[in-house]
TrEMBL record:
Alphabetized Pfam families for the sequence: Complex1_30kDa
Keywords attached to this entry: NAD, Quinone, Translocase, Transport
Catalysed reactions, semicolon-separated: a quinone + NADH + 5 H(+)(in) = a quinol + NAD(+) + 4 H(+)(out)
SUPFAM superfamilies: Nqo5-like
Enzyme Commission no: 7.1.1.-
Function: NDH-1 shuttles electrons from NADH, via FMN and iron-sulfur (Fe-S) centers, to quinones in the respiratory chain.
InterPro entries: NADH_DH_suC, NADH_quin_OxRdtase_su_C/D-like, NADH_UbQ_OxRdtase_30kDa_su, NADH_UbQ_OxRdtase_CS
Source species of the chain: Candidatus Manganitrophus noduliformans
The keyword NAD belongs to this UniProt entry's keyword annotation: yes
Protein's recorded name: NADH-quinone oxidoreductase
Amino acid sequence: MEEGGEHPVARKVQAQFPAAFIGAALFRGDLSIHLKKEGLFEVGRLLRDDPALDFDYPVHVSSVDHMGERERFEVVYEFFSIRKKHQVRLKTRVSEEDCTVDSLTPLWEGLNFMEREVYDMMGIKFNNHPDLRRILLPDEYDEGYPLRKNFPIEGRGWRDTFEFLES
């Protein structure tokens, strides 16, 4: 993996938010910027509002479970600039005890359902999300988070209680 700190986008983020910037990496030309969660929203605003960056398209939000590490969960945002034709990933880590991060939906409305999916499947809460509720699982589901590594592969037995209609 190449060092990404010299990439112009990474340099701009580091210069404007040195306290939030952890590091940057390039892999096959794709830039990832690692941030402290406290700086995520302001860095997102910079990516959207700075005319030189112009990240106008939120591509994806995902999460990673690094079970056994102090900051167990990682939230990964991917953005693209249609006019500038460049991309960036923002990555931030959260602990299981403080499993929250600021929502970027107020900056990009298109992130609404993607953040809800991460919340529903991994249990990461997004502060200031306009409608943080389940999107894939039933509202009454309370048996854990299916994308966490410690969720049983066979589930927790609730699938056995579904009644299927015969066609």
